[in-house]
Design brief:
Strand content: over 45%
Helix content: under 10%
Number of helices: 3
Number of strands: 37
Distance between the termini: 90 Å
Shape: elongated
Length: 402
């Protein structure tokens, strides 16, 4: 009986080990429904490899982390808008441990865009054994390489972004087709296809790479830009707007210029963020705007390389509901002037009244827009009060004169 108990314990351990090592998706439907998997549980962790034998969908709001993925013949993998599927991790990848995705014959990869784009992030390689159709309006990031076997075909459409940190290579007669306005296939390394290999772009689709070697490459493939931007997002917090963006590769890159606008036309600089020079690794950037504009505003990024080349990326709109703020700068002031700063549209009837620390009136100034107050007589050193007054809003701020 004792030996039988030991046998049961060992058998249970083996079963748990197998469950952790690999699972198979057997029934078309939600990725996050346990009964659709061979173990009746949703796979989790970079140590869990999975096989897709039916058509799964990673749904909005779900974020799944796994290891290697094998996709069987004629299977469609869908990442819905707001869904995220990640293979591996940056720590494993940087330690030379890849987690890769392999498509068998006639596969389909669909990554949807929306309020929050769907995202498939592979910390390893994407391997295409035969035909793979990619319908991408969201984002696909492959930190390693894309490897296409003989006669493999890769078709990209949908207006999304495919970013490869490494190289894209194909065997004999391999083909890449990128079509549709906004469809971008950005390759940090080289693009090379063997005998008979071809690439085609149409309808506004683009391919960029550090170098290209294949039939028709000179007409269809352009040089990689100083920065391959994967994403740029603005998120509303209680008292701020947090901005984050990600690059897949940078070439001779100096810094980002971050700008903000209240009307989407006139932009003002709010920050400069240093880049990483030349790198094929992914880098994430963050900035917090602690004085966002009330209501609708716009943010944009402009990349600046060491040679003076500039590229402005898409504008991101956002609506912020917060407390109105009125500030003066610089603070302390030299006493000759102060600049007025608002996080809202200034009212036409607004005025600013300046008092000294005893409450004596210094002067009243009409302010039709954000600007400056120039004092007729320089203020002496001390503490002063600036009172903003309009029909809709009143606020008093202290400032110091040195």
């Amino acid at each position: 009986m004792k030996n039988q108990k030991i046998l049961y314990t060992l058998s249970a351990a083996v079963l748990l080990s197998l469950a952790a090592a690999g699972q198979t998706f057997n029934t078309t439907g939600s990725w996050n429904t346990g009964s659709n998997w061979s173990t009746s549980s949703v796979p989790s962790g970079t140590g869990t490899d999975v096989t897709l034998a039916a058509n799964p969908t990673v749904q909005n709001g779900n974020s799944d982390l796994i290891g290697n993925v094998t996709v069987n013949n004629n299977v469609t993998l869908t990442i819905a808008a707001g869904g995220t599927l990640t293979l591996g991790s940056s720590a494993l990848f940087n330690a030379s441990t890849k987690k890769s995705m392999t498509f068998s014959n006639n596969g389909t990869l669909q990554i949807n865009g929306g309020g929050t784009d769907g995202l498939l992030e592979i910390w390893g390689d994407l391997i295409v054994n035969n035909n793979l159709q990619m319908q991408v309006t969201g984002n696909l990031i492959v930190h390693g390489n894309i490897v296409m076997n003989n006669n493999a075909q890769l078709q990209v459409s949908g207006g999304g972004t495919i970013t490869v940190g490494g190289n894209v290579s194909g065997g004999n007669n391999a083909q890449i087709q990128v079509s549709g306005s906004g469809s971008a296939f950005n390759i940090g390394g080289s693009l090379s296809l063997s005998n008979g290999g071809q690439i085609q772009t149409s309808g506004g689709g683009t391919i960029t790479a550090a170098s290209c070697s294949c039939s028709g490459c000179s007409a269809q493939c352009s040089s990689v830009m100083p920065v391959i931007l994967v994403s740029f997002e603005a998120l509303v917090e209680v008292n701020s707007v947090k901005l984050n963006w990600t690059t897949a590769a940078e070439l001779n890159f100096d810094y980002f210029l971050l700008e903000r606008s209240g009307d989407g036309k006139m932009f003002n600089e709010i920050a400069q963020v240093k880049g990483h020079g030349t790198t094929n690794e992914m880098h994430r950037y963050f900035y917090e705007d602690n004085e966002p504009i009330i209501g609708l505003s716009y943010y944009r990024l402009t990349s600046n390389d060491f040679d003076g080349y500039k590229e402005t990326f898409k504008v991101v709109p956002i609506v912020y509901h917060g407390e109105k703020q009125f500030r003066l700068s610089p603070n302390p002031s030299d006493g000759s002037s102060v600049k007025l700063n608002f996080n809202f549209d200034n009212d036409v009837d607004a005025q600013v009244t300046i008092y000294d620390n005893l409450g004596s009136l210094i002067g009243t100034y009409h302010v039709s827009g954000a600007g400056s107050i120039n004092f007729d007589n320089a203020l002496r050193s001390g503490v002063y009060l600036a009172k903003y007054t309009s029909a809709a809003f009143t606020k008093t701020e202290r400032f110091l004169v040195k």
